[in-house]
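Morning F.,

Quick status update on the modeling queue. The single chain you submitted on Monday has been processed. Sequence for confirmation:
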Amino acid sequence: MKKVVFVLSGLLVFGISSFLWKLTPTTHHYQLSPLNSGGVAAGKTGAPGEANCTQCHSGTVQDGTAENVLVVSQGGTPVSSYVPGQQYNVTLSMVSNPAKRGFQATALSSSNVMAGAFTGVAGNTSINGGAKKYANHTSTSNTSASAPNWSWTWTAPAIGTGNVTFYVATNKTNNNGNDNGDLIYLSQFILQEASNAGVEENITSSYAIVGVSEQAITIKSNTELDRITGVSIHDANGKRIYFASELLSQNGVYTITRPNQMQQGLHFVTFQANQKLITRKISL
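Structure tokens below.
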């Protein structure tokens, strides 16, 4: 009899516990981890008709003009116009050089279609997408320690394409292991199709280097822009020896403090104005 009472008591306790469990809301705790450490789904650059990184990261969108530095070069020489069908190296870096970061970029014509083709670099950049192609970070290039820059190859489009706009979205993460609190930087960079002159210097005369001294390099402009951004100097081997996120105009003149590494030889000054990449040569 005692055994029967014990069994009935056990069943009663189990039944009450089950009933209370059903009435009690259950809260599940999950540790979210970044979903896109090895690259992101296509269409997150902020280009016309596209989303951006905030689709997956609950961060805020920032103006990336002074954060994203994109350089298009050939043979180590930065360019600001392209020759149809030629191959160029594209390098992207972030001025703040965050410990954890990511990016996506594409290149579109004025008709919002893919302009040319992308080829990734193993371990550094991957390419995805359909009719439009996108360059992305990889799981081994999402930290400043492993890769301070991202690089990939761009094959320029056919003749007659006209201006090409690189749309770039970068993610400066707070490295908290979740998908919240990140900063998303959006920017655009425009390359002109080369004319018969072949170089942008002959196409646009609104910026000219008017002085090179031991202390400074001066650029004069006839525009009303109060600043130029992403100012860099590369030597003839493509090594960057100077960078400033922006330079302010003093009556139409921009002054660069001449870097000590700038010795005799050919150098290239590259900067962004009105979202266009402009390159000027200096021969010392």
